[in-house]
Specification:
Mean pLDDT: 77
Strand order of the largest sheet: 1-2
Largest sheet: 2 strands, antiparallel
Structural class: mainly alpha
Pfam families: Tetraspanin
Subcellular location: Membrane
Keywords: Membrane, Transmembrane, Transmembrane helix
Number of helices: 9
Membrane topology: Multi-pass membrane protein
Family: Belongs to the tetraspanin (TM4SF) family.
């Protein structure tokens, strides 16, 4: 490879790693948002250790990506072979892990759906109607997705407030606006005039699945784009690494 090609590869790799660094920052920020935002879906699942662990993994992956981006920039701009080799190995491991995670999610989707149903049912059974953070998050989901419960409206039949009340109560956030009469609240419980609740018939699981199917092209595009970028980074790093014959560590800052 000529000197000009090596120089071009070096700066392309530097630019790539700068983007990778920013991408890691986005992932870490997304994980922090899921944990800290009162309106995020994670608040509803705050009793699930597995889901919380997944958010911490997102934060860890984002931080690791930022570190990799920094090391990649350093290895590219100062032509340090050991950093470039380490960078290539880490990218390869990440790509393998992503493929394994995708396969696991695909083949275990029924198990994941059952686990999700158990978690949400527990949340609904203990929904007291006092406008807590968890309730605000679940109300937000039901209102905006036009759904009721996880599988369906019957998920609310085990709620202790509804069971123990002498009134015909139903969750206000489930209320179908097209069937509503008069003023109604957006949270807590509302009183029904008949045993047939004026609520959405579809469960939130179906709404989430419908959203995923509608946006499957975007989701697949993002996944393929990420995989392509990682492969490009691997190719650039190994090409640059193979064409560095001597390393000048005097170029590396001492601080």
């Amino acid at each position: 490879m000529g000197k000009g090609c090596v120089t071009a590869t070096k700066y392309f790799l530097f630019l790539f790693n700068l983007i990778f660094f920013l991408f890691g920052a986005v992932i870490m920020g997304f994980g922090l948002w899921l944990l800290l935002d009162n309106q995020s879906f994670i608040v509803v699942l705050n009793n699930s250790t597995a889901v919380k662990v997944a958010c911490y993994i997102l934060i860890g992956v984002g931080a690791f990506s930022m570190l990799m981006g920094f090391l990649g920039c350093l290895g590219a701009i100062y032509e340090i072979r050991c950093l470039l080799g380490l960078y290539f190995t880490c990218l390869l491991l990440i790509l393998i892990a992503q493929i394994a995670a995708g396969a696991l999610i695909y083949f275990q989707k029924d198990v994941l759906n059952k686990e999700m149903s158990k978690i949400v049912t527990k949340v609904l059974d203990n929904y007291p109607g006092n406008n807590s953070t968890t309730e605000q998050a679940w109300d937000f989901i039901q209102r905006n997705m036009g759904c009721c419960g996880w599988i369906g409206r019957t998920d609310w039949n085990g709620n202790m407030v509804i069971v123990n009340s002498s009134q015909l109560l139903f969750p206000c956030s489930c209320q179908n606006i097209s069937l509503a009469t008069g003023n109604f609240s957006e949270s807590g419980f509302c009183e029904a005039q008949t045993p047939d609740w004026p609520v959405y018939d579809v469960g939130c699981a179906d709404s989430v699945e419908s959203w995923l199917l509608t946006n499957i092209g975007v989701v697949l595009g993002i996944c393929l784009g990420v995989a392509f970028v990682e492969l490009l980074g691997m190719i650039l790093s190994i090409c640059l690494c193979r064409n560095i014959h001597t390393e000048d560590y005097t170029k590396v800052p001492k601080y």
